[in-house]
């Protein structure tokens, strides 16, 4: 019986360093995995809530939209903040210095085809009674009708001015007005799957 207890004590004393070594290895491994995936950086998830700065898009002077606008989306470069570390898809840890491009982010843009909002409003205000605004926007039949009826006796001119000013009536080809990119723009709010997803992500 005493021999059994002695062998048990020896076994425990021999396994104690092994247990401590295994515990230390697990702690080091968990600390190494403390770095989050770089995908969270682009999604803006914790702990990368405000961890990057995106460049302003380069604006085309003629269209007043980003130069790389395609299918109503443009892409801008985003630079993670200095000393931000994340894990790449291949498993390696990368630390940003503030100069590297971390990812590209999409920004909405508009499909324009040469119709100026300022010109349309000016024509509607001063020459709407002869249908100049409708001719300009590509509605020749309505323009001719306004011309023959002197803007529907002025009532049609007033209604058209309000509709064009609020951007309810736009170019006939379905494109958007050319409006200064950093100027006053009307944005129609709508609830989509993307809107719902962004709401769910917010704290």
TrEMBL record:
Protein localization: Membrane
Keywords: Glycoprotein, Membrane, Signal, Transmembrane, Transmembrane helix
Residue ranges annotated for the TM2 domain, each copy included: 114-161
Membrane-topology descriptor: Multi-pass membrane protein
Gene Ontology CC terms: membrane
Superkingdom: Eukaryota
InterPro entries for the chain: TM2, TM2D1-3-like
Residues in the signal sequence: 1-32
Sequence intervals crossing the membrane: 115-132, 144-169
Primary site of residence: membrane
Family label: Belongs to the TM2 family.
UniProt protein name: TM2 domain-containing protein
